[in-house]
Amino acid sequence: MAANFQSWVSARQSDFEEVLRGILPRPEAAPQRLHDAMRYSVLDGGKRVRPLLAFATGELAGADVARVNIAAAAVELIHAYSLVHDDMPCMDDDVLRRGKPTCHVQYDEATALLVGDALQTLAFQLLAEHRLSDDARRQLEMIKLLAVASGSRGMAGGQAIDLDSVGKKLTLPELEFMHIHKTGALIRAAVLLGAYCGSVSASQLDKLDHFGKLIGLAFQVVDDVLDCEADSSTLGKTAGKDAENDKPTYVSLLGIHGARDMAKSLHREALDTLAEFGNSAQRLRELADFIVLRKF
Predict the structure, then answer these.
(1) pTM over 0.70
(2) CATH architecture type of domain 3-293
(3) Which DSSP helix (H) or strand (E) runs through 42?
(4) N or C: fewer beta carbons within 10 Å in the chain?
(5) pLDDT of residue 245
(6) pLDDT value at residue 179
C-alpha cells in the first residue's frame, strides 16, 4: 500500500475505533455481562473494510464525516453480529475470531445469541436517531437499504444458502448468487450508505452499486484463497475451515489459480466502473487493490 493510503487507513481505523467505543453501551451499565460481550465482539479487531468503503464513498460524495461515522458504525455492527452468530455451534462452530476466542467460547452460547440480537438492533437505532441526510426520504431509504442487505434477501439469506450447501457441488452462478447475498450485500450497503450521506446523482449511485457488487464478490474469492493458503495466526480465525466442513468455495470449484484469476478479473472490472469519477474515487481504487491483494 502507498504510504499516503496507509496513513489514511490508519487514521480512519483509529478514529473509527473511538466512534465505536462511544456508541456501544458502557460495560458497567446493566446488564453488564451482555454489554461487556458486545464490546468484546466489536472492538479491537478486524480490518474495518466495510467502514473504510463507506468513508471512501463519503469523501467522493462530499459527506460530513460525522454522518459517515454513524452509517459506517451501523454496517460494522451488523457485520460483527453476523460473525458472532456465524461462529456459534449451530452454524460454523468456530473457536477463533480476530485472533481471540469467539464470543460463545469467551462467554456462553446464550450470551452470544443475545450479543448478535443487540448489535443488530443497535445498528438500526443509530440510523433512526441521527440525522444522516437533509432529505428525510433518503434517510428512510438508508434504513431500508441496510435492512434488505442484512435480511433474507441479503446476508441472512446467503448464510442460509451456505448452510444448505454443505457437501454439495454448486455451479459458478450458484456460488456467486450465494456470495452476492452472504458477503456482497453488506459490502454494497457500506458503499452506498457512505454515498447517501453526501450528494451523488442516481447514475453515480448505480456505478457505485455495481462497484460494490464486484468488489464484494472479489472479497469472498480472495477469502476462499486465503482460507487455503494462510495459517490461523495470520488470518485471526481458523484456517482451512471451509474444506474441513466440505463447503463449496471458489477454490474447490476453480482451483487456486482459477480463483486468483477470477479475483483479478473482478478487480479490473470494479476499477473500470470507477473511471468516470476521476481522482475523487482514488480511495475506492486503493481499497479495491487492498481487498484483492491482501494477505490476511
Answers:
(1) yes
(2) Orthogonal Bundle (1.10)
(3) helix 32-42
(4) C
(5) 73
(6) 95
